[in-house]
Structure formats: C-alpha cells, structure tokens
Write a structure and sequence with these properties.
CATH class of the largest domain: Alpha Beta
Shape: elongated
CATH superfamily of the largest domain: Vaccinia Virus protein VP39
Order of helices and strands: HHEHEHEEHEEE
Number of helices: 5
Structural class: alpha/beta
Bound molecules: S-adenosylmethionine
Largest sheet: 7 strands, mixed
Low-confidence stretches: 5-9
Helix content: 40-55%
Strand order of the largest sheet: 3-2-1-4-5-7-6
Number of domains: 2
Strand content: 5-15%
CATH topology of the largest domain: Rossmann fold
Radius of gyration: 27 Å
Mean pLDDT: 87
C-alpha cells in the first residue's frame, strides 16, 4: 500500500491534485474491502465450526459421557446433584433412572431449557434446577455429586468437597480430574475420561 502511494505521488511530480486524491481514496477503499472480506470469511468459518460442533460433535460427546455417568450410578442410592447442569440433559437422564436429581446452573437460558426438558419428559417432580452458584450448594445432602467443570473451578471446589462430602458418597468428574485427589477408578479415555472418587 505504501509503495503504491509513493509511486502515485512520485509519477505525478509530487502534486496532490484531485486525480491523485481520487486514486488514493479508491486504494484505501479497496484495502477496506479486502479487510472486510477477510473478517467476514473468518466470522463465517468460526460460525460454521461452532454449528458443526454444537450439532454433531458436542451432543455425541455428551451422550457418551451421560451414558458413562449412568453406568457409574448403577446400583447406587440417594440424591444426585449436577454442579453446573448446563442444558439439563444429565439431570433428566439421571431422574429418568429413578433418582431424585438437582442441577445448579447460572445461565438463565440453559435453566429455562432444562426446566422445559424435564417438564416435557414428565420428570418435573424428580428433577429440580436451581439458579444458583454451584459453590452455594450444600453438598452434605447428596450421595452422588457430578461435575463437568473447568480445572479452575475444580481447584476451588476441591476444598469444599473435602469439607462437605459425607462418607459413602461418590464424586464423579467428567473430563477433568480433581487437582490433588487420587481417583478410586476411571472410566473411558482421553477427553471422555470420567474420574470417580469414593469417600470412605
Ligand atoms: C461443561 S458444562 C456441563 C453441563 C452439564 N453438567 C453436562 O454434563 O452436560 C458446565 C456448565 O457449568 C455452568 N457453570 C459454570 N460455573 C458455574 C457456577 N459457578 N455455578 C453454576 N453453574 C456454573 C456453565 O454455565 C455450564 O452450563
């Protein structure tokens, strides 16, 4: 761009007459158009990746983890809590297996969707969704605690789990493990790994 501008100025003998100004304006506008097209292309690529992920990869991935959690709850008793319950699919799946299940979630849209899902599946009396910070949940009342949270959340949560999880309870962490606890067992591998911690 700089070279082109200099060429125009040089060939016209340094005079910034109207035609040079017009050429400069058209060059600047072409540059703007190129940048706009680039941003538009990038935006489309990001949207497409997000849509494919949401429509194909994430549901498949979550289905597989939900099945894993249900396997790990087989034969267990007591209430289940999902800390950060997202779209409510895990809470509903667990409730459909006869458990009483609670979800804690801050996102109001996901909460609305979760309640609708529970209602449509006829699970409204077994599945309850709280619009509250997961750190405010009283974990003493739950025998089964499920979390699919980022490591930064798990670092904070570990201390709360140590104080509140009662003997005989099971903590199930999807994808990310607790930073210092040693899992009793694991299920799956890679990003599908589920870590299980049984409190003795
Ligand atoms: C990875 S999603 C897991 C969704 C669901 N548990 C599942 O397994 O499908 C994590 C969810 O935790 C929620 N979340 C993050 N921090 C939270 C907090 N402090 N309190 C409540 N929910 C939180 C997010 O809004 C998000 O929906």
């Amino acid at each position: 761009m700089k070279v082109k501008l200099w060429t125009i100025v040089y060939t016209k003998g340094g005079e910034m007459d109207d035609s040079i100004e017009m050429e400069l304006a058209s060059l600047a506008s072409a540059e703007r158009d190129r940048s706009f097209l680039l941003v538009k292309g990038l935006g489309r690529a990001v949207c497409l990746t997000y849509m494919v992920n949401t429509a194909l990869v994430f549901p498949w991935y979550r289905r597989s983890q939900v099945c894993g959690v249900l396997r790990l709850l087989r034969g267990r008793k007591g209430t289940v809590v999902d800390l950060g319950s997202g779209d409510g699919r895990l809470v509903c799946a667990v409730a459909s297996q006869g458990f009483r299940a609670d979800g804690y979630e801050l996102n109001p849209f996901l909460l609305g969707y979760s309640r609708l899902l529970a209602h449509r599946k006829g699970l409204a009396s077994q599945a309850t969704f709280h619009r509250r910070d997961l750190f405010e949940a009283d974990l003493r009342q739950y025998r089964n605690i499920v979390i699919y949270g980022e490591p930064v959340i798990l670092r904070r949560l570990e201390q709360k789990l140590a104080e509140e999880v009662t003997s005989g309870s099971r903590v199930i962490c999807c994808r990310y493990k607790l930073p210092t606890w040693a899992p009793t067992t694991t299920l799956g591998e890679g990003i599908e790994t589920i870590y299980v911690y049984d409190k003795v």
